[in-house]
Amino acid sequence: MDWQGQKLAEKLMQIFLVAFAIVAFVVGYALGSFQAMLLIYAGGVLLTALVTVPNWPAFNRHQLIWLDPSEVDRHPRPQAAASQSLKKKTTKQK
Amino acid sequence: MEKAGLPEPITKRRRMGWIRENVDSIRSLQKRQVLTQAVSLGMIVTSALIIWKGLMCVTGSESPVVVVLSGSMEPGFKRGDILFLHMSKDPIRAGEIVVFNIDGREIPIVHRVIKVHERQDTGEVDVLTKGDNNFGDDRLLYAHGQLWLQQHHIMGRAVGFLPYVGWVTIIMTEKPIIKYLLIGVLGLLVITSKE
Amino acid sequence: MHSFGQRANAIATFSLTILAVICSLASFTDNFSAPSPKAEVKVSNFNWLQKQRNGNDEASLTLNISADLQSLFTWNTKQVFVFLAAEYETPKNALNQISLWDKIISSKDLAKFSIRISNKYRFIDQGSNLRGRDYNLTLHWHVMPKTGKMFADKMSMTGFRLPEEYR
User: Fold this and answer.
1) How distant, in Å, are the alpha carbons of A1, B65, B149, B162, C130 from that of B61?
2) Looking at the domain assignment, is residue A81 inside a domain?
3) Has B88 been annotated as catalytic?
4) Transmembrane stretches, by residue range (chain A) (predicted)?
5) CB contact under 8 A, A21 and C22
6) Which residues of A touch B (CB under 8 A)?
7) Are the C-beta atoms of residues C129 and C90 closer than 8 Å to each other?
8) Residue A45 lies in domain
9) B:C CB pairs within 8 Å
């Protein structure tokens, strides 16, 4: 899942769950049935899980394009600067 | 899932230095990681303790939350429900659901008060309890020859409850293997997780 | 959010939090209901009053109980526990509460009833103070929600008196 996809997935999850909770509560209260509320909400959670948990192709539309190694080869950097930038990357990546 | 690959270092003379540096950075990183993980673990444990002790202060009961272990109060309380206790100064009255300890019994019992006799002079109470789902009263459960519960047997009265949540505790106490498995898996997760 | 496990974890945490919120909201709606239960209790027959061998008085009576507790039920009500207690004061005890009868009502349809029954639990005093004693009959109800806070109320009926002599 790419960065944009992660953002989208998180947003979708929150919106879906809150929306289902509101619908479940209103329907449950209107019908006077606690069970209806729980069932609707459980269904909503399942649906949300189906939509946001698997790595659907829709979440992978913004792949990062890494520089080709040959590019770096063509523009070699000074030694010190190169090692520093590498270190930065390793810590970031963890 | 998708981790950004490092751009391959290209020349051999650079590779050696890079590896050494990387190893160094990983070493220092691990030390810090272990430390931060220890600290966060400590935070979890201590905050749990704070919540528990805080609840004890607020409710005035020595165990503010109990898990229902038997079906003797069904259909009101089922096995696995969690009860919140409160210990106020108000005298105990019939109909209240109390949690009490019998001398010589380890596990506290949650039952309903059906008879109350409150002394004129001292204000002491004699209480008889019964489980809603049981046929007879609790004299058979009490210590041998004990007819009444006194104030000091009572740990608190139930004021609210949450269904099902207590099943976790029941499963863990009855099947210790699952407890150790869970602790093991959680420990592994804590050690391997990088956040 | 970059891995399957993390997303599953996030959804589990968030959905449980919301579940707790809607359950407490449901419990909160109980505050808006204003129940108006009705009940009537009569002693239809006084069976006997005796002194036990250990010196305690015991009485037996037959009760007529009719009640309409349907207004206590809301959508968050699991059951209503209703019981009838005899309450009286003696020189020894400032308050005696003796449960005579109880019932678990699990649905609204069963909350309107009328029965005639002799006391289910024994009416025994601590001592021999029952002769000529005035007592109340109090109908208590404890409402148990599906989740959240329990609440209770009662209705007292006064003016009952036990006979002056054993019989």
Assistant:
1) 49, 9, 17, 18, 36
2) no
3) no
4) 12-32, 38-56
5) yes
6) 1-2, 55, 63-64, 66-67, 69, 72-73, 76, 79, 82-83, 86-87, 89-91, 93-94
7) yes
8) 1-64
9) 80
B124 touches chain C (CB under 8 A): no
Domain that holds residue C1: 1-32
How many domains is chain C partitioned into structurally?
2
- In degrees and rounded to multiples of 5, residue C64 shows phi and psi of -110, 115
Please report whether residue A30 resides in a domain.
yes
Residue A13 lies inside a defined structural domain of this protein: yes
Assess if residue C167 is contained within a domain.
no
Contact between chains at A10 and C19 (C-beta distance less than 8 A): no
- A4 falls within a domain: yes
Which chain A residues are closer than 8 Å to C15 by Cβ? 17, 45, 48
DSSP H helices in C39-117? none
Residues C23 and C56 in one domain: no
Catalytic residue among B61, B81, B88, B111: B111
Which of A71-85, B5-19, B99-113, C140-154 comes out lowest in average pLDDT?
B5-19
Which chains have 3+ CB pairs within 8 A of C?
A, B
Which pLDDT belongs to residue C1? 63
**CATH architecture designation of domain B65-164:** Ribbon (2.10)
pTM confidence score = 0.74
Q: Are residues C28 and C40 in the same domain?
A: no
Distance in angstroms (rounded) separating the CA atoms of residues B35 and B27: 13
What pLDDT is attached to residue A93?
Answer: 45
The domain tally of chain A equals 1
- Write down the residue that tokens 């960065």 correspond to: A3
Residues 6+ apart with CB under 8 A from C143: C72, C77, C80, C150, C151, C152
Catalytic residue among B61, B72, B81, B153: B72
One domain for residues C110 and C82: yes
pLDDT(C64) > 50: yes
* Chain B residues with CB-CB distance to A90 below 8 A: 6, 22, 25-26
> How far apart are alpha carbons B41 and B191 in whole angstroms?
11
Please tell me the distance in Å from B4's CA to the nearest CA on chain C. 12
Residue of B nearest to A55 (CA): B1
Q: Is B72 a catalytic residue?
A: yes
